[in-house]
Amino acid sequence: MSAVAGDSKVATKQRLIEAAEELFADDGFDRVSVRDITTKAGANVAAVNYHFGSREGLIAVVLTRSINPVNEERLARLDTLERRAAGKPLPIEEILDAYIRPFATQVRRSELTEKIFFKLMGRMFGHGCDMPPVVEQLFINMSSRFYKAFAKALPGLAPDDIWWRMHLMGGSMIHTMAHGEKLLRMSGGEAGTPTLEQTLSRFIRFAAAGMRQGSEDGQEEQKTRGPQVEFPF
């Protein structure tokens, strides 16, 4: 095979991945066909099977290349925080920042626009299909590490309560990423167009209040700050 032919195949594979990412972000995984992807990529219908084995194989590549960097950075950030804390509980806001901020850093490294990136992430995390084993295992490792950090920071909360709060927090994060632009329309523009940093700050403060509710840490905060807590977004 000549170098030109090899480069052409690599370029076709890359175009298929990029076309799939944009289409999945806009329309969801279930509604996008192989023909939709190949048409957008300017490739033959058989190209998906040739490069990825199947439509599911292409989905696995899209999932792996988009989600794994986020989860790897989450773990790296948590490692750094825990080394610095030297065994002491971490502030809830710092744990949440380690969990959320990788979306901001990864969108800057992505070739996708910010809007497409967050829509794609929302689709992925809300998608019900089986994840590739390498993605699922990293998810399990990441979730277990963050559970332990939250459990240490939230004394008095039962394990099931912590897991459910993480689940609810993750669900609201998915909704924010996938449907953030709808709020602007529903509010008639009153929701504004916050920067990514403003949205992260708002979400972290909101999630921290929910995670603390009913814990010893949360009860102490209520005693010291009163029942009406202001969050200066």
Automatic annotation (TrEMBL):
SUPFAM superfamilies: Homeodomain-like, Tetracyclin repressor-like, C-terminal domain
KW Oxidoreductase (keyword) present: no
Region (Disordered): 211-233
Gene3D superfamilies per record: Tetracycline Repressor, domain 2 (1.10.357.10)
Keyword DNA-binding carried by entry: yes
Keywords, comma-separated and alphabetical: DNA-binding
HTH tetR-type domain ranges (all copies): 10-70
Pfam families: TetR_C_30, TetR_N
DNA-binding positions: 33-52
InterPro entries, per the entry: Homeodomain-like_sf, HTH-type_TetR-like_transc_reg, HTH_TetR, PsrA_TetR_C, Tet_transcr_reg_TetR-rel_C_sf
Name of the featured protein: TetR family transcriptional regulator
Species per Swiss-Prot/TrEMBL record: Luteolibacter flavescens
